[in-house]
Write a structure and sequence with these properties.
This is 3-isopropylmalate dehydrogenase. Homodimer. This protein has helices at residues 14-31, 45-51, 57-64, 88-98, 122-125, 164-179, 195-209, 221-230, 242-253, 294-307, 311-326, 346-361, and strands at 3-10, 36-40, 68-73, 103-109, 129-135, 143-149, 155-159, 184-189, 215-220, 237-240, 265-267, 273-275, 329-330, 342-343. It is of the alpha/beta class. The chain has two domains: 1-106 and 262-362, Isopropylmalate Dehydrogenase (3-Layer(aba) Sandwich), CATH 3.40.718; 119-256, Isopropylmalate Dehydrogenase (3-Layer(aba) Sandwich), CATH 3.40.718. α1 packs parallel to α12, α6 crosses α7 (195-209) and α8 runs parallel beside α9. It is globular, with a radius of gyration of 20 Å. Bound molecules: nicotinamide-adenine-dinucleotide (NAD), 3-isopropylmalic acid and manganese (II) ion (MN). Nicotinamide-adenine-dinucleotide is lined by residues 13, 17, 73-76, 89, 92, 259-260, 276, 279-285, 291-292, 295, 333.
Amino acid sequence: MMKTITVLPGDGIGPEVTASAVRVLKSIFSTSNRNVQFIEKKIGGAAIDAYGTPLPQETIDQCHHSDAILLGAVGGPKWNQQSMQLRPEQGLLGIRKAMGLFANLRPVEAFQALVDASPLKQSFVEQVDFVIVRELTGGLYFGRPSERLGPNQDRVVDTLAYSRQEIQRVVEKAFQLALKRRRKITSIDKANVLESSRMWREVVNETAKRYPEVAVTHQLVDSAAMQLITNPSQFDVLVTENMFGDILSDEASVLTGSLGMMPSASLRADKVGLYEPAHGSAPDIAGQGKANPLATILSAALLLRYSLDMDTEAAQIETAVRQILNQGIHTSDLHVANHEDQIVSTSEMTDHVIHAINANRT
Ligand code: NAD
Ligand code: IPM
Ligand code: MN
């Protein structure tokens, strides 16, 4: 049966990195006899320019008729002055919410070839292999009211709201994931201050009873931020509230050498998912062919694994990426000390990945 992947390139380097991932996917589908169609739609600033809204109905409808969505990034200086509803970022939040994608998985794995690229000591980074499970459709990002108040509009409120069920379903995903890994969960909250965190902790402890084989610890978010740097190899699966997860994931990306290395999968109960790099639209390097496409290419691997049941092909992408990095080939965002290294452009890196996948298959 034919599968449909909707591509939402977005803004800045978004179109460059999604083009790379689409090329990798097309190469894989053509050699594995899979019938997959790609349909491109607009989101973010590109959609504001074309339709006057960051998330046109047409884009939402197309996503609802897809097996998977591949997204680049949204936002940029051009749209920074817009009112909140018109900002590109609302398009991204809107599609996550409209699709009900409540669990955002962000794997953090230290590639051996890149341990020098992190500002941290090699010994801290070497063993790093964990996944952040970030709640994606609730919490501070979506709580209402979120507005200016008072006669002079000089009071402001944002709301951190969760239902027990919203916490339950993402925590459940984290436990399921832990079963396939090293069976350790760290739940991150601010239970010493926030009521929402106290309920979060309750739900984690209740769920833990059904998973006796999984070891559970709780950490406060401030101390977790410190431990991500001082003892990152302790972590296996981290599960946390939307905004905590947003902040901690950029921090964690430093362990991999660059924000340009961190993929993500946004999932729900069925197999439909949205896949995007954790980084943004990088306006400072957009259009220069400098963007690291690996976060998006690795997101495409997650797409194959979670939405299309193509585990073998997903692993082929991951192996190819590892091999190329081991050869000292990388984009300019990775500051590796080795002078023999070869710095390549976005499209050259993509060619290398495709070539390595094909070479490994024959
Ligand atoms: P950013 O992630 O776009 O960039 C941060 C830094 O990392 C920049 O120096 C950038 O050049 C570098 N960088 C990021 N991705 C890279 C890659 N693939 N290759 C090489 N270098 C890379 O964050 P920002 O500058 O704070 O935000 C820019 C815009 O992106 C804002 O409008 C923001 O809202 C938006 N944003 C979007 C998403 C998303 O669409 N998922 C995520 C984060 C930020
Ligand atoms: C991310 C981004 C988004 C978020 C922004 C652009 C809305 O930072 O995907 O991490 O905060 O979720
Ligand atoms: Mn973020």
